[in-house]
Amino acid sequence: MNHKVWLLGRSIGVGAHILGERVTRPRARAADDVPVSGATLTPEWLTAVLCAAVPGAEVTGYEVAGGSVGTATRTALRVTYNDAGQEAGLPEALFAKTTTAFAQRILLGGGQMIDGETRFFRDFRPQVEMEAPIGYWGAADPGSWRSIALMEDIAETRGAEFIEPTARIGRDRMEDLVRNLAKLHRTFWRHPDIADLKNTRQALRAYLAAIDMRKRCEVGLRRADAVIPESLRGDADRLWAGVERAIALATDELPPTLLHGDPHIGQTYVTGAGRMGYVDWQVVMRGGWAHDFAYTVNSGCDPADRRAWDRELLAAYLDELGTVGGEAPTFDQAWTAYRQQALFAYAAWAFTIGRAVYQPKMQSEQTCLTLLERITAAIDDHESLAALEV
């Protein structure tokens, strides 16, 4: 209740900030400014955040090259520099993600995710060799819950195409994706830099404080009834018990590593060179590897493909993971963890389709139904609730 009272108070404060922004239309000029959106940047601000390490370099202008709106407002930018900036090879094709709308700020701020992408690009991305965008700047304002992450526009720089969540993904691409995930996990396995990240249990509590996630999952299960296996229909209470048990295991029983946190197939892309990577690092957290692995595989594979491939995909993941200081699970241990960790992905998509009026519409109904069909088929096939003893 205390957190809900706090969130109500923060909502009033954030709403007041948004009203003020609409009146004053602030423009970001100094590095300490946090822009309202990618459309309110200035050459002065871009110079401050992109050119600081290059004496004499300046941004001479920029143009907006497209964008979209979801949990964040996304703006593609094309930046021009003076001669010093051009000679230094400063980035020209960028992508800005901002929390511009009230619902975005309440969802990400109230869920304690407002600075997740900033942390990833600033602290973690430089340490790992994997397929993911490069970040150039990030900041969040604690009062207004404005935030920005400025990163590489991989569509331009790498010829990336973003994966349509409802599309069928081939086996080779799925293997490349889980190997990419293993590179992330092995790099940060029990790493001291992840110690201050929220863990998987804290993340779930933050979601529950910001949104009545359990209730929204119950509503979502009803709305998706046509694609849910018969054995799980109407069993919202048992499924939620499975979510809580899976989160407890990911927090307390599995060795901690850096998790993407929300690695569904719609957060992935394929480069022009054919490599699979991840985007949208807003909910990075600390927890057990199988949380990410199960979410990726079960959201990305059509049920028939998953049944044919998931053992091979797990073997490929473990091969890429390596020994991790002697803590790598055996295949049988990993298989059990994979079965158990199927539940959070269910919750993520049940609450998305079960959204209340105050939640932003993050995904289409068809995307929600497709991914819930895949994920709940995996829960049913692998008897995940029995594996969790709920």
TrEMBL record:
The keyword Transferase applies. Its EC number is 2.7.1.-. This is Aminoglycoside phosphotransferase family protein. It comes from Nocardia jiangsuensis. Residues 116-320 form the Aminoglycoside phosphotransferase domain. The lineage of its organism: Bacteria, Bacillati, Actinomycetota, Actinomycetes, Mycobacteriales. The keyword Lyase does not apply. One of its GO terms (molecular function) is transferase activity. Keywords: Transferase. It is an enzyme of class 2 (transferase). Pfam families: APH. InterPro entries: Aminoglycoside_PTrfase, Kinase-like_dom_sf.
